Amino acid sequence: MSETPVLSLHEPDLPVTRGSLLRFSDDPIACMKELHRDHGDLAVLADGDQRLVFVFSPELNRHVLSDTQTFESRFFAVRGNRKSAQRRVTSGLLSQNGAEHRDSRRMMKEVFAKKILPAYHETICRLSSDLTESWQAGNSCDLNAEMVQFMLRMTSALLFGFDDAGFAQKLGRLIDRWAHRNHEIGMGALVSAPQFAEGYDDLLSQAEELEETVRDMFARHRSTQHAQVNILSLLFQAQESEQHLTDDQLIGHSTLLFAAAHLTTAHTFSWTLFLLSQHPDVLGKLRNELAKHVAGDIPTLEELEKLPYLDSVIKESMRILPASSYSQRIAVQPTSIGPVRLNPGTPVIFSQYITHHRPDIYENPDQFIPERWQTIAPSAYAYLPFGAGPRMCIGAPLAMVEIRTALTIMLKRFNFQIQPMSTVNGHVISTMLGPTSSIQSLLLPADRTPITVPVLGSVHKLVALPAGAQPLAIPRAA
Ligand code: HEM
């Protein structure tokens, strides 16, 4: 018996845009902006029998994200067969649902507990300090590349206890290549575009290479004494006390943790430094706060507690350019959202970017205004850079500590002058909104304030930069 279609052509009042689903895979943000503009809180993109359902309001975000029985996470569209490496490397939290997910979250909660965070302070400060020592005022750098390399090293050290740039880069390269392939094939499945399925065999062999590297890393980790606390040591401890936690399961958790942690945080750093450099008055205020409350170059844990303006800057940066721009759930039983009926298997997309740019929640939503956080307190479903509900990012407290500490260390020593007329592009890859070009900057000493300069590129479609950042009008020849 065929299932009832989600929508029928005879329901003209439904919030439906008909057109190719490739519009979404090509440029998710542009597509979601149009859907939100045309339909408001709830929209459907329909192509023949295929539908993508979008929710854009805090109320509907809550509806979808809090009902984990109806809306499940299937982050990886391709799981491979039961005994494949692909199955094992995709078996982390984002592929789990129901009791399996609840049990894993409980086990991981201990590992990510707030009380453990101070133990990471030394590593975060040391690696941030190494980074700033490799910089020299007067030199040029690509902030995007610097932050990606920095976070590969940081993530490898914090998660696995290896401060080894070569290993971090190898694992990062394998994970990014594999995540990209997953995204392509997953997006192909989501929008029913068979051409994306061509990389399937390649994906499976990439998963094998990745698994082998993670297994080697486990062996190396077990045979090494670790002076600093790291997440893998805590997972191995949990393994000793949890009878059913196997190495195969830890492969899935470790791979997901690394994949979920490094680029999201790197993009947050890149966007925050870019926004600060283009908003010198905000930077000036932040610098005053750092000068007043942080005595040396390296902040103590107590000093980091007293930086409210830094918190506002980070919150605002993650609002306006959220590294996780959207995510999805799959309806697993027949249900409805408002007037839209959903069959099992229908993808439902929620978007941090669209929710965070709603003018009814955030005044002048496209502008970077950290001061707004002194007077607003949006709900968990109106401000959700780390997601919300039972699947909210488990690494959020760790990410926040990394960002607050490393930004303080960088800004205590340097400023960044964005290269005038350079191109800064931002695009969504694998749900993450990051810079897709270099961010060319000149390193300035901390006592020299940068100026707002005109830049080119698609970043202008994502945020409203100050007037001085608009590309100069090119005089026309007579
Ligand atoms: C700025 C940095 C980060 C951002 C913006 C971010 C964002 C997110 C978001 C939005 C989700 C929810 C996805 C959904 O609901 O579908 C998520 C989940 C997750 N994140 Fe993060 N994340 C960051 C850093 C980290 C770090 C540092 C780790 C680990 C060390 C981590 C591990 C995870 C895991 C394991 C999940 C899955 C949780 C679950 O399904 O129960 N993330 N993250």
Question: What are the salient characteristics of this protein?
Answer:
three-stranded antiparallel β-sheet; 11% strand; globular; binds protoporphyrin IX containing FE; 478 residues; six-stranded mixed β-sheet; disordered C terminus; single chain; Cytochrome p450; alpha+beta
Please bin the fraction of helical residues. 40-55%
Q: Using the coordinates above, name the CATH class.
A: Mainly Alpha
Strand order, main sheet: write it out.
1-2-3-9-6-4
Report mean pLDDT, rounded to a whole number: 92
The domain tally reads 1
Describe the structure.
With 478 residues, the chain is α+β, with helices and mostly antiparallel strands. It has one domain: Cytochrome P450 (Cytochrome p450), CATH 1.10.630.10. It is 47% helix and 11% strand. It has 17 helices and 13 strands. A six-stranded mixed sheet has the order 1-2-3-9-6-4. A three-stranded antiparallel sheet has the order 5-13-10. A hairpin with a 2-residue loop joins strand 11 and strand 12. The N and C termini lie far apart (70 Å). Bound molecules: protoporphyrin IX containing FE (HEM). Protoporphyrin IX containing FE binds next to helix 11 and helix 16.
Ordered list of secondary-structure elements with their pairings:
Layout (H helix, E strand, L loop, with lengths): L15 E3 L3 H5 L1 H12 L2 E6 L2 E6 L2 H9 L4 E2 L12 H5 L8 H14 L9 H13 L6 E3 H18 L4 H26 L9 H23 L8 H11 L5 H32 L1 H14 L7 H4 L3 H13 L6 E5 L3 E3 L2 E3 L4 E4 L1 H5 L39 H18 E5 L7 E4 L2 E4 L4 E6 L13 H4 L16
Parallel strand pairs: 1-2, 3-9
Antiparallel strand pairs: 2-3, 4-6, 5-13, 6-9, 7-8, 10-13, 11-12
Bound molecules: protoporphyrin IX containing FE.
Protoporphyrin IX containing FE binds next to helix 11 and helix 16.
